[in-house]
Amino acid sequence: MMLTLDIGNTTFHGGVFKDDQLVFQFRKTSQSKGSSDEIGIFLKTVLTTNGINPDDIKEISLCSVVPDAVYFIRNACVKYFNITPFELKAGVKTGLKILYRNPLEVGADRIANSIAAMQRYPKKNLIIVDFGTATTFCVINKNKEYMGGIIVPGINISMESLVQNTAKLQAVEIVERENVIGRTTAASIQSGLYFGQIGIVNEIVQRVSEEAFQGEKPFVIGTGGFSALFASAKLFNDVIPDLALLGLREAFIMNKDN
To answer: H or E element: which one contains 38?
Structure first.
């Protein structure tokens, strides 16, 4: 079995693969990084509680956009699983030609998403929209070139900003909305958050299509923690919330000989 770990700014997303099947997933807040022991005990506990023997984990693949967390997680993997994890980072094989001026600036989670998307939909122009702490867009052409991306505040950050910078607006549950016009303050905020993200996605996808693909319609994939919220909004050709975990498995296989 393989354990995959995607460490984001807000959440720690993990998954277990048996052969090529993702058989289990879990999420944990990553705002408190914890010590190596805390992380190791958490990982073993969450696996055992869900019927997975930690001794069956033979490989670990991880990526992180939180550099300080990598040290503790790597040590936890060595101490509690006796495995030195593979880390998706600069210098490893990805199958991508990254056209960023400084390729090191591209987040490892975005590379993981891109690897999985290319593997699932080869020879297509792709836009990947990841609804996480930030809402990010990755643009990959059919020649496997990572052309660049777009980053905007995520839906949760947008809500927190409203709450922190206004006197009377309160936090609300983030939900799918049917009607754009809210008739309460809470409904108005929910509508703005939900349809605001839809508007951003529609506008950026249209502009990217014109700029990168000469108007040819790309294949658009939604992923990330909030992607399921927009599954019925007709934004995407496919919604794959666990895309980064799939990419981590593919990256491990690509680099196994090394």
So the answer is: helix 36-49
Q: What DSSP state is assigned to residue 159?
A: H
CATH of 2-87, one of 2.60.120.1440, 3.40.350.10, 3.30.420.40, 1.10.260.40: 3.30.420.40
Q: Name the stretches of the chain with pLDDT < 50.
A: none
CA distance 9 to 153: 13
Distance CA 61, CA 55 (A): 16
Residues contacting 205, CB < 8 A, separation 6+? 127, 129, 137, 218, 220, 235
- Report the predicted TM-score, pTM, of the whole model to 2 decimal places: 0.91
Q: Which residues contact 240 (CB under 8 A, 6 or more apart)?
A: 116, 117, 120, 221, 222, 223, 227, 246
Q: Token pair of 131, please?
A: 């609804």
Is residue 226 classed as helix, strand or coil in its secondary structure? Answer: coil
CATH 3.30.420.40 domain residues, the chain: 2-87, 97-248
Backbone angles phi, psi at 200, to 5 degrees: -60, -50
Max CA pair span of the chain = 59
Domain 97-248 has CATH 3.40.50.300: no
Q: What is the pLDDT of residues 36-56, one digit of tens each?
A: 899 999 999 999 999 999 999
Catalytic residues: 109
Q: Give the tokens for residue 181.
A: 């016009």
For every residue of 162-206, DSSP letters joined together read HHHH-SS---------S-SS-SSHHHHHHHHHHHHHHHHHHHHHH
